[in-house]
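User: Sequence recovery, please. Input:
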């Protein structure tokens, strides 16, 4: 196997070297520090320093080369060698809820999702591959925009092409716009699938106009976005969509080096009884094989078993291939970059370095962000959502924090991360939460019985999750609880007062004719005289011919008992305007 070459023209910045090695900047700064070099991200390292560091890290198959020519800027984080080979495109499907993402993936894969795996854990498949025209296409089942964005924050480029699904009978919706923005910021190519064209209300030109108003100009109209009308349900035009994916891949000339140590991204991880950690990886460079040692964030391991997305054993995974492996000692995190190293010792060392670097980072970042938030809280009246985040490994804590920050609260709620940490939820967390009226979120950690007792006693909320999206959903709904409720009033009817039988301090008995709508017990009432508002009351009972009834409708006359909070001097000819008032929880 050949070495991967990193060319250095004079010097290389810490940032550039970290990227070339597939390490995080903090890892690299950590290693430099251990070697007595205090460096910042933009600091330039000379050839010698860079080679010592690579040695120290034990990274194999990487060769430094002095380069005289000027470097050409590239869109991609890794410069490809001239030995790079074509790789399948990595495609994500996004769009508004119910516009047909799941149906599209299902039809493409000619499979049905199992909705009710009785009592079992529904296995979430995070990536698939299918063949079209004898070429592979990798599909990612996007795990929600927030989590996806967290991956991007970690500096990883995950998708080449984003398919935006828009229902032709519904047009562009908020999540469509979110998907467009996401795809653009992730620098992915966009293909639009105009779906549900079999439906009666489908209007393709209107949908295209809608899209073009939102920044996507159809090719047919002189723009640069391919739009394919499809019916995911009726399997119409899906071949055309796949053709367009391959065409886009060809234009982009998607390539990867295979003669470098394997590398890629963690796209899902969970624990399974009897297997330990089960981790889905997307290989982005090199070739991953069983028996090799890999590091991802602060976890490492030896690839014990490797399966393709259909669960069949796979000996070797090439770029753009999703695989499921076992062998990681701890769970790595969604979005972590993994890299192959030469032996267990190196793997352990790198994992430790990553852990230290992440700890330093979160320690220093925490102080500033929470201080800042506190200052902001003083400055405006917005609500504060206090959380403590605990995770099994540092990377998961970072992912949760990143994703929480990504929830858009329209400036109404400030997220205050009281503390973060690795490990099970402990006494200290509960103390802190009680003080600050805080929710403790645990990701892949447990709650010892004495701690949950303590929390119950102190009224502290602890929520633990194994799936990041579920955690985010819960946090979102907790934030929604903090929003002031919306008050919705609905007019119900009107009555003309024809007789007043009794007015007391807090009650009135009167009779009249319902002019419109109806009158029912429990309705609220505005008392109005010549357009002047006199006060509010509540209907306690409704009578017709001296019998209690459920309602009086327009045209009927009858009696009413009203409850008031202050005395209202009701008179003949006053109007009672009936209405209902509900408080509605607002959504984010
Ligand atoms: P998702 O929320 O975007 O994943 O949407 P789904 O795939 O769950 O689809 C939502 C609904 O639209 C389901 O009832 C589908 O059967 C239906 N649907 C999806 N694609 C089509 C289509 O091409 N034609 C019609 N008529 N219905 C569709």
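Assistant: Recovered sequence (588 residues):
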């Amino acid at each position: 196997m050949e070495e991967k070459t990193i060319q250095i023209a004079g010097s290389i910045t810490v940032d550039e070297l970290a990227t070339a090695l597939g390490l995080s900047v903090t890892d690299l700064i950590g290693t430099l520090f251990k070697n007595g070099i205090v460096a910042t991200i933009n600091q330039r390292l000379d050839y010698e320093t860079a080679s010592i560091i690579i040695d120290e890290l034990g990274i194999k198959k990487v060769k430094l080369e002095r380069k005289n020519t000027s470097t050409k800027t590239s869109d991609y984080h890794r410069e490809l060698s001239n030995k790079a080979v074509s790789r399948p495109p990595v495609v994500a499907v996004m769009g508004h809820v119910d516009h047909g993402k799941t149906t599209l993936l299902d039809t493409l894969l000619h499979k049905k999702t199992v909705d009710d795996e009785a009592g079992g854990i529904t296995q979430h498949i995070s990536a698939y591959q299918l063949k079209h025209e004898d070429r592979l296409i990798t599909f990612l089942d996007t795990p929600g925009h927030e989590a996806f964005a967290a991956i991007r924050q970690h500096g990883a480029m995950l998708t080449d092409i984003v398919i935006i699904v828009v229902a032709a009978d519904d047009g562009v919706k908020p999540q469509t716009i979110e998907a467009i923005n996401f795809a653009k910021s992730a620098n992915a190519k966009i293909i639009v699938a105009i779906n549900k064209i079999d439906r009666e209300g489908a209007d393709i030109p209107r949908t295209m106009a809608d899209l073009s108003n939102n920044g996507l100009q159809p090719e047919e109209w002189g723009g640069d976005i391919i739009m394919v009308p499809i019916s995911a349900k009726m399997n119409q035009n899906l071949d055309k969509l796949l053709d367009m994916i391959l065409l886009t891949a060809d234009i982009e000339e998607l390539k990867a080096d295979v003669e470098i140590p394997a590398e890629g991204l963690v796209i899902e991880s969970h624990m399974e009884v009897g297997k330990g950690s089960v981790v889905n990886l997307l290989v982005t460079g090199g070739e991953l094989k069983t028996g090799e040692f890999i590091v991802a964030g602060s976890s490492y391991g030896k690839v014990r078993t490797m399966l393709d997305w259909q669960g069949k054993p796979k000996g070797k995974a090439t770029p753009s291939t999703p695989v499921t492996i076992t062998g990681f000692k701890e769970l790595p995190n969604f979005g972590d970059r993994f890299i192959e190293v030469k032996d267990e010792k190196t793997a352990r060392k790198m994992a430790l370095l990553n852990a230290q670097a992440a700890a330093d980072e979160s320690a220093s970042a925490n102080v500033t962000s929470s201080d800042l938030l506190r200052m902001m809280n003083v400055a405006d009246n917005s609500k504060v959502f206090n959380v403590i985040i605990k995770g099994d490994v540092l990377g998961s804590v970072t992912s949760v924090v990143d994703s929480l920050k990504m929830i858009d609260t329209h400036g109404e709620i400030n997220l205050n991360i009281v503390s973060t940490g690795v490990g099970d939820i402990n006494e200290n967390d509960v103390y802190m939460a009680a003080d600050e009226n805080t929710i403790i979120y645990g990701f892949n950690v447990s709650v010892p019985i004495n701690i949950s007792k303590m929390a119950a006693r102190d009224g502290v909320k602890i929520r633990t999750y194994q799936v990041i999206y579920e955690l985010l959903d819960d946090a979102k709904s907790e934030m929604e609880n903090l929003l002031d409720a919306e008050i919705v009033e609905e007019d119900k009817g009107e009555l003309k007062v024809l007789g007043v039988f009794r007015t007391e301090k807090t009650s009135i008995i009167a009779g009249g004719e319902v002019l419109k709508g109806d009158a029912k017990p429990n309705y609220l009432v505005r008392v109005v005289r010549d357009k002047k508002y006199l006060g509010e009351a509540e209907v306690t009972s409704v009578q017709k011919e001296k019998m209690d009834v459920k309602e009086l409708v327009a045209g009927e006359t009858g009696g009413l008992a009203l409850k008031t909070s202050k005395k209202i001097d009701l008179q003949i000819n006053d109007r009672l305007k009936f209405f209902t008032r509900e408080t509605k929880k607002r959504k984010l």
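The two ends are 53 Å apart (CA to CA).
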